[in-house]
């Protein structure tokens, strides 16, 4: 929610609309229970593979949609009434960053879900809570929510200045397990509560939910720890005074943005980041004065780094990137080498750009160095991608 | 493993499994409809082959859940036969078929069929005579939990019997020390019973919902397991690279981790603490990467100034590693052990003292650039002499654990130690 006044006005408008709908349709006590559930659903974040948690709202919305047989007032009116409280809850409990991520993508996604579900019920004329048609409708409207929310999140994110929207959309789409687990658990509760009773239905839905929650929580924490470990290892040469402080982090940040701009995603992008963080780890060899006193090239450092990194089996592709980074895009009189991975070309260009900055050049001059070497030292497409990233970040503004 | 013994065991277990199935065919009706049994069997086999690591080293397969769901769905008349048949086909692992191994599948066949038949037989009295009603739910859930534990216990006893016959040198953890696994299986069994009842009361519409949620959990745990392995692999790889910088300490980290585990197990630390201390042992010398090599390899003891250079570099690296949430407590343990080696703080946590004693033992029993390895007996005497530093209980735990493994470290005798010492001194003088 970037424009504060406009956001407050929209939230107030939505809440007023929800309240008017509740009065107009003479909503009963379940309406207020639903509104309370919507607000409570913001107290817990369901862990996501991407590391950005989702609220429990998809689960609550699915249960309300099935339980009310697609009543738009119950699905959307209750959520609108709860919106002010939900915003405050997220702000207080998880802070500004989560608030910006959850709103407005979540309410807009929910609106898409409610509209598709309510329309589907009236067209198909099914009993949502007991027919297979209700389940099918839930899948379709859930997909609508997920897709719309991902697009809004990618378009709205503050990170849009530093990372390409395509990457932000890919990251948002990677969070499908949260939506699927929450909605299927809620549906399980709704489909069984009448036959087995509320307590047993809660148990039946609760165990698979807990299983998914626990597993994704472990994925999230382990992924975070793994990344922190690589970052810490990347800082070791700095700790030994062998590299300027902050170099690894700066190169890695720019490498990720440039690689994403150049079209890399997923695991390939992670490898580029790790290569950028660990490309100087071989400098620890220079703690040996006998080696430090002798001549050594950038290629030697890359070789030492790759040797250390390749000791970890899982990081062998990263070691390959570190070695390939030393290869120019094309040697004079030769065709370009198609075997050099794009990731290596990205690290090469970004490292050269960062080195130029560290030598005292302005960003514009540093990019000019890359332009002069384009098509021989550096891949022109990668240089263009880096330039676009820098322009988006306003780094190249005079 | 004796070839004849493994053949006899395979034949005995295969015969026992076939016998159990034959008895069940006589006593029970065939599960109907067949397509539903095939569906449950396929799920059972898939889950049996893909256990997930839900916690550090705690592997759980959800196949037991499917077994008890099927038991409720097929009812008292055919539950035991339906589940035993599912278990019978779950031994056909593609790897065994590809490599034409049949002895292990034959043993597993008997083991799984017997465990399943006994487990479900215990569950039969809990199953209702007629259709399942809402009132049956508590009994079905409780009965399935109890029967899952019986299934698990029978399976454990059979596995122990097989291991003792085929691999007498191997040790297995006792059943009572695997509590988290039993609890997980009891919960899964109880849930399976509940699921079977819900299937009977609501219909097959609930199956896709359960499958989706469990599948996500399954994918999550598989992903967690891979990430965890990658993380450990990265730390180990880095430690190996660090050790390569100093030929005198190659393998030191892995040995210290081994001694730490032995001592901590003897002192009764739980699995989580063992895991924590293993990490501490693995990273305890990572700070060496930033230490100038001439100091690391210096023949002879360090001067005060040199010693400060070494500790300063190590502290800087420890600070960097402490930024990793998971490593922070371990870095503290590792740092505490360095303090202890300095003769510093006496109030070091027991984890730090265990690590320090293990580190000291390995240092004494390894040849370094400035002295040779001592004998194991000398190292034990030296540890006992430093009992006030490490704590008597820690020292005795380490010594007792090493003695019980019958492993011997260090120089074989005083004469060899003296000979190596002479060579090392000559090298130091030349340097």
Brief descriptors of the model:
heterodimer; A: 398 residues; mainly alpha; Hypothetical protein af1432; 2 domains; 72% helix; B: 431 residues; Arp2/3 complex 21 kDa subunit ARPC3; 2 strands; elongated
Rg over C-alpha atoms of chain A, rounded to the nearest angstrom: 26 Å
| Tally of separate domains of chain A | 2
CATH class of the largest domain in chain B: Mainly Alpha
Oligomer: heterodimer
The level of helicity of chain A is over 70%
The topology string of helices and strands of chain A comes to HHEEHHHHHHHHHHHHHHHH
How would you explain this protein's 3D organization?
The complex is a heterodimer of chains A (398) and B (431). Chain A has 398 residues and is mainly alpha-helical. Chain A folds into 2 domains: 4-223, no CATH class; 240-392, Hypothetical protein af1432 (Orthogonal Bundle). Chain A is 72% helix and 1% strand. Chain A has a two-stranded antiparallel ribbon. In chain A, a hairpin with a 7-residue loop joins strand 1 (45-46) and strand 2. The radius of gyration of chain A is 26 Å and the shape is elongated. With 431 residues, chain B is mainly α. Chain B has 2 domains: 3-204, Orthogonal Bundle (Arp2/3 complex 21 kDa subunit ARPC3), CATH 1.10.1760; 245-430, Hypothetical protein af1432. In chain B, 72% of the residues lie in helices and 2% in strands. Chain B is built from 18 helices and 2 strands. In chain B, strands 1-2 form a two-stranded antiparallel ribbon. In chain B, helix 1 packs across helix 3 and helix 12 (304-321) runs antiparallel to helix 13. Chain B is elongated. The two termini of chain B are 52 Å apart. At the A-B interface, helix 9, helix 10, helix 13 and helix 14 of A face helix 7, helix 8, helix 11 and helix 12 of B.
């Amino acid at each position: 929610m970037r424009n504060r006044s406009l956001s407050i006005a929209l939230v107030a408008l939505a809440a007023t609309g929800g309240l008017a709908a509740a009065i107009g349709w003479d909503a009963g006590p379940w309406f207020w229970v639903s509104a309370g559930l919507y607000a409570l659903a913001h107290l817990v974040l369901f862990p996501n593979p991407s590391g950005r948690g989702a609220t429990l709202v998809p689960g609550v919305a699915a249960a309300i949609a099935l339980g009310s047989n697609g009543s738009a007032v119950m699905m959307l009116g209750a959520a609108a009434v709860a919106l002010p409280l939900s915003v405050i809850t997220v702000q207080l409990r998880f802070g500004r960053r989560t608030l910006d991520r959850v709103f407005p993508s979540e309410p807009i996604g929910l609106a898409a879900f409610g509209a598709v579900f309510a329309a589907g019920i009236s067209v198909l004329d099914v009993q949502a809570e007991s027919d297979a048609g209700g389940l099918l409708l839930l899948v379709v409207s859930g997909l609508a929510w997920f897709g719309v929310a991902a697009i809004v999140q990618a378009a709205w994110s503050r990170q849009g200045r530093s990372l390409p929207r395509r990457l932000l959309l890919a990251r948002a789409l990677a969070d499908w397990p949260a939506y699927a687990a929450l909605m299927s658990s809620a549906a399980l509760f709704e489909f069984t509560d009448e036959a087995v009773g509320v307590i047993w239905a809660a148990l039946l839905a609760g165990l698979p939910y807990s299983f998914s929650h626990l597993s994704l929580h472990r994925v999230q924490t382990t992924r975070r720890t793994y990344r922190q470990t690589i970052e810490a290892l990347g800082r070791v040469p700095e700790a030994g005074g062998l590299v300027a402080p902050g170099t690894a982090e700066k190169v890695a940040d720019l490498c990720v943005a440039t690689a994403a701009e150049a079209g890399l995603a997923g695991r390939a992008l992670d490898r580029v980041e790790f290569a950028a963080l660990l490309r100087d780890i071989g400098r620890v060899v220079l703690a040996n004065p006998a080696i430090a006193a002798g001549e050594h090239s950038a290629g030697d450092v890359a070789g030492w780094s790759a040797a250390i990194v390749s000791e970890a089996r899982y990081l062998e592709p990263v070691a390959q990137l570190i070695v390939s980074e030393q290869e120019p895009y094309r040697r004079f009189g030769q065709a370009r080498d198609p075997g050099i991975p794009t990731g290596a070309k990205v690290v090469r260009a970004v490292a050269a750009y960062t080195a130029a900055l560290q030598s005292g050049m302005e960003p514009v001059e540093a990019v000019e160095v890359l332009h002069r070497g384009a098509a021989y030292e550096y891949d022109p497409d990668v240089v263009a991608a880096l330039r676009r990233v820098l322009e988006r970040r306003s780094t190249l503004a005079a | 493993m004796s070839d004849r013994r493994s053949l006899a065991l395979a034949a005995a277990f295969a015969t026992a499994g076939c016998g159990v199935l034959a008895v069940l065919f006589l006593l029970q009706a065939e599960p109907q409809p067949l397509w539903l049994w095939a569906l449950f069997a396929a799920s059972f086999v898939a889950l049996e082959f893909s256990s997930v690591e839900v916690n550090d080293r705690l592997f759980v397969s959800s196949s037991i859940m499917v077994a008890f769901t099927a038991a409720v769905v097929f009812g008292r008349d055919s539950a035991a036969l339906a589940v035993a048949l599912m278990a019978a086909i779950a031994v056909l692992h593609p790897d065994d078929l590809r490599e034409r191994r049949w002895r292990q599948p034959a043993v597993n066949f008997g083991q799984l069929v017997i465990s399943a038949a006994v487990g479900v037989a215990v569950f039969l009295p809990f199953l209702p005579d007629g259709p399942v009603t809402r009132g049956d739910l508590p009994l079905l859930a409780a009965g399935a939990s109890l029967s899952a534990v019986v299934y698990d216990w029978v399976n454990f006893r059979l596995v122990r019997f097989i291991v003792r016959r085929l691999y007498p040198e191997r040790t297995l953890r006792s059943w009572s020390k695997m509590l988290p696994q039993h609890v997980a299986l009891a919960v899964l069994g109880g849930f399976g019973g509940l699921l079977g009842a819900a299937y009977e009361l609501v219909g097959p519409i609930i199956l896709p919902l359960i499958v989706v949620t469990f599948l996500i959990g399954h994918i999550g745990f598989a992903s967690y397991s891979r990430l965890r392995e990658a993380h450990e692999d990265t730390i180990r790889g880095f430690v190996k690279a660090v050790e390569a910088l100093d030929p005198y300490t190659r393998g030191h980290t892995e040995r210290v981790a081994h001694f730490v585990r032995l001592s901590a197990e003897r002192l009764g630390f739980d699995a989580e603490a063992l895991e924590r201390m293993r990490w501490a042992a693995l990273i305890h010398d990572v700070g060496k990467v930033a230490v100038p090599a001439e100091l690391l390899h210096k023949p002879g003891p360090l001067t005060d100034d040199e010693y400060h250079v070494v500790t300063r570099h190590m502290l800087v690296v420890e600070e960097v590693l402490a930024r990793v949430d998971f490593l922070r407590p371990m870095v503290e343990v590792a740092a505490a052990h360095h303090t202890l080696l300095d003769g510093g703080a006496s109030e070091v946590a027991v984890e730090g003292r265990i690590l320090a004693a293990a580190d000291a033992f390995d240092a004494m029993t390894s040849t370094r650039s400035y002295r040779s390895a001592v004998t194991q007996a000398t190292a034990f005497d030296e540890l006992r002499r430093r009992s006030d530093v490490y704590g008597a209980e820690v020292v005795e735990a380490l010594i007792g654990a090493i003695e019980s493994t019958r492993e011997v470290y260090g120089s074989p005798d005083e004469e060899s130690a003296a000979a190596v010492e002479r060579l090392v001194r000559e090298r130091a003088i030349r340097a």
